[in-house]
Amino acid sequence: MTFSVKAKSKMSPLSRLGRRSVLAAALLAGTAPAAPAAQAEPAAERAAPVPDLVCRLDAEVNFSPPLSWRVKEAQVTGYIGYLDCRSPSGAAPELTDIVFGVDGTGRFGVLPPTFSVEGNGVGTWNTGEVGSLYFKGDLKQGSPVPERTVTSGPLAGDGINGLQIPTPRFDKITPDGVAGFDVIGQVCFWPGEKGRCTAF
């Protein structure tokens, strides 16, 4: 939105449940003289940055193999969708939807338990134009979206920020493994200085 078989030790159902619960909880977890007034720029007169696009975020990332206490790095696949976009700056009112297919690397950090992703994505806008992006960052509840930059296509060079709500999907085979995340939220495309996406 780049991403020796060892014998498994026997573990009691209670032990597996305990590990899974801990993992889920971790997720949802002045002496200088004043300058003359004429030379100072009043804060009220500074223009706040306006985004080129504001979009609804709908994404899915998958880890292969599932990340867990035993597996610290995995391939990331999935998609990052930017939907129902609008253009507050008026720079790109024709761009309303894009879904990037993504590929990269997912990582699990033990202390503290943290999931992160890094990779690239390619997709097609509703206009038929192809775009690509780079992403890197953590997947945490209510946290800023991973750092993203439009690398080609419409709005190339724009930085992306916003707010995300990721929900983990636990693996059906490995009780304490996380197979991926479903992510919703809101993102903004900024041509320069980034502002607060939730203000739009």
Overview of this protein structure:
The chain has 1 helix and 8 strands. It is elongated. A hairpin with a 5-residue loop joins strand 1 (53-67) and strand 2 (73-86). The two termini are 21 Å apart. Mean pLDDT is 82; it is low at 1-18 and 21-38. The chain has one helix at residues 13-27; strands at 53-67, 73-86, 98-109, 114-125, 130-138, 147-152, 159-170, 178-190. An 8-stranded antiparallel beta barrel has the order 1-2-3-4-5-6-7-8.
Concise overview:
The protein has 200 residues and is mainly beta.
Shape: elongated
How many runs of DSSP E, i.e. beta strands?
8
**Biggest β-sheet strands, sense, barrel:** 8 strands, antiparallel, barrel
Arrangement of strands in the largest sheet? 1-2-3-4-5-6-7-8
Oligomer: single chain
Range of strand content = over 45%
Low-confidence spans = 1-18, 21-38
How many helical stretches? Answer: 1
Structural class: mainly beta
**Helix proportion of residues, in percent?**
under 10%
**What's the SSE pattern?**
HEEEEEEEE
Distance between the termini: 21 Å
Mean pLDDT rating: 82
The Cα radius of gyration reads 21 Å
